[in-house]
From TrEMBL, chain A:
It comes from the Bacteria. It comes from Brevibacillus thermoruber. Keywords: Membrane, Transmembrane, Transmembrane helix. This is Tripartite tricarboxylate transporter permease. The chain crosses the membrane at residues 24-49, 61-82, 109-135, 147-175, 195-217, 256-278, 317-340, 352-379, 385-402, 409-426, 468-486. Residues 20-437 form the DUF112 domain. It holds the Pfam family TctA.
Automatic annotation (TrEMBL), chain B:
It comes from Brevibacillus thermoruber. Keywords: Membrane, Transmembrane, Transmembrane helix. The keyword Membrane applies. Pfam families: TctB (PF07331). It comes from the Bacteria. Coiled coil: none annotated. This is Tripartite tricarboxylate transporter TctB family protein. The keyword Disulfide bond does not apply.
Length: 505, 152
């Protein structure tokens, strides 16, 4: 009952004109950036994160959530119309979305994608309302050993975020942790890794690193590939026909359920669930031979799974502070800019904030549907903006984004340097998401580790002696195995699709 | 001497091992400031140093295996890419010297020329429009203060 009251209070807050405006703006701007070819949700949020820093926390996070959903939808638009998936999770959408667009049915595909995303997003948010407070309530019993175990659990995410080589993923994670150590040590107060350079005493700003690794590197990739935006034909009417509705209803529900329940597991990314949903749909279909040639069910199911997983990802993020996907890792950074640490105490200490954000997700999802269906033509036109204009504009925005957090040119230089590094990492297939994840989690891991060791007089076995931390560690081991198996399967599918000619960004 | 099959991974592995040594040295330096042998600011660096060395060694071995040869995607536009990176580096320096607005105007004109391959006239007009928009939104509206340079 309490949850319902809090949710209603959240709705009252979310539909204030200012917050509605932020949700609408976030959804619009997110779609705007997400639609730009090659810029996926992660890059979109990275570019726009500093822009929200001028807002107060609730409005800022509402806008960020809107940007997140908007960018996800924008990514689907380019996947369907241009065969450019912004992220691996959009690859299954390309498989049937692009053939549909080639047949002149891009409009209905976009419409079904928006509606399936909306329905699954709502399912995910309902799940968030039901599950997150329960999880957070349990998590209130956490002490330093439990937090330390939780950080170990977060490490298992590295498997699903590895993108191939586990050794490289863990090395990048170690690099991220090391970067987070630069600055003053928490227990001695002595500078670490500063090598006599006073600028390093303040440590690296996470936004500069994120902007560099994602946004600037993405622009450099575009320049390196001489990226051009080309749209094929007219997408047709965006409102699906009766038969499209009929064909898509069941796949949407199935995809949403697969996406939501698997998305609850930290480490199970939207890439995994969207492929699973697509394959499931192909298996249950009476006409599996139509998949890959323009089956509307092949758009509805992965899109629903993708969005349900994205919404479900907010549950471990809000209640445990664990981001289960790259865009959520950037959102976690957004929380931290406002001095809010997601985790068990977030529900306890900032209930009004959390429930307003949850309520605004309903609003944001609805707004996305209302705004995007009539505006699809605008997004199609946007993909025609030459890259030669977009790239310098994005680079200038990145400069402002990196500078505005601490008003420091050092941060701008760091962003540019990491942009160059990010390009090299992309070229030689070193995954950058583990680096960002560990950079964000580094201080939390160190703090919980030191507190645990102090508490137990240097005996790390305390983590195995306390029931909750032991359960978390066992869950981490189980998740590691599940993630390894699912990851291997997804990699195999991505390779298959690459061989068939899908251009995986 | 047998050469590694995957040279980029080999170099990555060598750099990782070198990073491991550097991080371990820093951990050793920090050890002097800690009250306990196992707990302090040196603990995580020490663990990370070990992780870098072990995983770097594993990658080193892996780079000699004939499994997958990492090849850089051929980039016919490497000159544009390098020019763009050089311009960004110059931008950092210029902001401090001539101020944010002038530096943005100059560097964005070059970027439009290099990335978009526009003529100088178009590039300068685009740069002026972009700088004007940034001025209105970020300096006039959002009141962000940028460096004004040595001359103002």
């Amino acid at each position: 009952m309490d949850t319902l009251h809090l949710l209603l209070a959240g709705f009252a807050q979310a539909i204030t004109p200012e917050n509605l405006l932020m949700a609408a703006l976030g959804a619009l701007v997110g779609t705007f950036v997400g639609v730009l070819p090659g810029l996926g949700p992660t890059s979109a949020i990275s570019i726009l994160l500093p822009v929200t820093a001028v807002l107060e926390p609730t409005q800022g996070i509402i806008m960020l959530a809107g940007i997140y959903y908007g960018a996800m939808y924008g990514g689907s638009t380019t996947a369907i119309l241009l065969n450019i998936p912004g992220e691996i999770s959009s690859v299954p959408t390309c498989l049937d979305g692009y053939p549909l667009a080639k047949k002149g049915k891009g409009g209905p595909a976009l419409g079904i994608s928006a509606i399936a995303s909306f329905a699954a997003g709502i399912l995910g948010v309902v799940g968030l309302v039901c599950f997150a407070p329960i999880l957070a309530d349990q998590a209130l019993k956490f002490g330093p050993p439990e937090y330390f175990a939780l950080m170990i659990l977060a490490l298992t995410l590295m498997v699903s975020l590895s993108g191939g080589s586990l050794i490289k993923a863990f090395l990048m994670g170690a690099f991220g942790y090391t970067l987070s150590l630069v600055g003053l040590g928490p227990s001695s107060g002595m500078p670490r890794f500063d090598y006599g350079i006073p600028l390093l005493d303040g440590g690296f700003d996470m936004i500069s690193i994120i902007i560099g690794l994602f946004a600037i590197a993405e622009v450099l990739k575009g320049i390196g590939e001489k990226r051009l935006a080309t749209v094929i034909g007219a997408p047709g009417n965006v409102y699906p026909s009766k038969s499209d509705w009929k064909k898509s209803a069941a796949p949407t529900i199935r995809g949403g359920l697969v996406g939501f329940f698997l998305g609850l597991l930290p480490g199970c990314s939207a890439a995994i669930t969207s492929f699973l949903a697509y394959d499931l749909e192909k298996k249950v279909s009476k006409h599996p031979e139509q998949f890959g040639k323009g089956a509307i069910e092949g758009v509805a199911a992965p899109e629903a799974a993708n969005n349900a997983t994205s919404s479900a990802g907010f549950i471990p993020l809000f209640s445990l502070g664990i981001p289960s996907s790259p865009p959520l890792a950037i959102l976690l950074a957004g929380f931290m800019i406002y001095g809010l640490t997601p985790g068990p105490v977030l529900f306890e200490q900032h209930p009004a904030f959390v429930w307003t954000v949850i309520a605004s997700m309903f609003v944001g999802n609805a707004m996305l549907l209302v705004l995007n269906l009539p505006l699809v033509w605008v997004w199609v036109k946007l993909t025609k903006v030459p890259y030669g204009i977009m790239a310098p504009v994005i680079l200038m925005f990145c400069t402002i984004g990196a500078y505005s957090v601490r008003n420091s040119l050092f941060d701008v230089a760091v962003a540019f340097a990491f942009g160059g590094l990010g390009y090299l990492f992309y070229t030689y297939r070193w995954p950058v998401v583990p680096l960002v994840l560990c950079f964000i989690l580094g201080p939390l891991l160190e703090e919980s580790f030191i507190q645990t060791m102090v508490m137990s007089s240097g005996d790390v076995a305390i983590v195995l002696q306390r029931p909750i931390s032991l359960v978390i560690l066992l869950a981490a081991a189980a998740l590691m195995l599940v993630s390894l198996a699912l990851n291997r399967r997804t990699q195999k599918r991505v390779r298959e699709e690459r061989q068939r000619g899908a251009d995986v960004a | 001497m047998r050469l590694p099959h995957n040279v980029p991974d080999f170099l990555g592995a060598v750099l990782s091992i070198a990073a491991g040594v550097l991080v371990s040295l820093e951990a050793y330096r920090l050890r002097a400031y800690s009250l306990s042998r196992y707990v302090g600011d040196h603990t995580l660096p020490a663990i990370l140093g070990l992780v870098f060395v072990l995983l770097g060694a594993a990658l080193l071995v892996h780079s000699f295996r004939n499994e997958e040869r990492a090849k850089a995607p051929p980039s016919p536009h490497r000159t544009s890419l390098l020019l763009c990176l050089a311009l960004l580096g110059a931008y950092c320096l210029l902001i401090d010297i001539v101020g944010y607005l002038t530096a943005t105007l100059i560097v964005s004109a070059f970027l439009f020329r290099v990335v978009g391959r526009y003529g100088w006239g178009t590039a300068i007009v685009l740069a002026a429009v972009l700088t004007g928009c940034l001025y209105v939104v970020f300096i006039m509206w959002l009141q962000i203060s940028f460096p004004t340079g040595f001359f103002l």
